[in-house]
């Protein structure tokens, strides 16, 4: 078990709480260099990256397709079934990652992002005290003889 925790912390950037932060630029880059990423391993990493992308990109989706992509990604992360070959837990096991670690990080990111969005939406817009006045000026020179 400690071996997996070490692999996780080496493979992913983490925030101040030590959780996986999908917004970190190098979150998946280190995994691409590992030896396990040939054939099925590379495909599994691509599936994981794609699911994280959909989870982030479509959190606030307004259309049916975007909402469905977000919902499917979230349900896939939350599924506790390692029996299927391409399940989230099976992919994590193959990539030597701890699924609960990634789940907690993704759910923390979601909660934080929803709170920020809610806070921004509830803030009244700043009213300007005075409108800037812009007057058109033209330069006219008197005609001289």
Based on CA inertia axes, which overall geometry fits? elongated
Structural class: mainly alpha
How many distinct folded domains?
Answer: 1
- Topology pattern, helix = H, strand = E: HHHHHH
Rg, nearest Å: 25 Å
Main sheet makeup = none
In percent terms, what proportion of residues is strand? under 5%
Distance linking N and C termini: 97 Å
Looking at how many chains there are and whether they match, the oligomeric state comes to: single chain
Low-confidence stretches: 1-11
Helix content: 40-55%
How many helices? The count is 6
Features:
6 helices; 0% strand; elongated
SSE order and pairing:
Blueprint lengths: L1 H10 L17 H4 L7 H18 L6 H15 L9 H7 L4 H24 L23
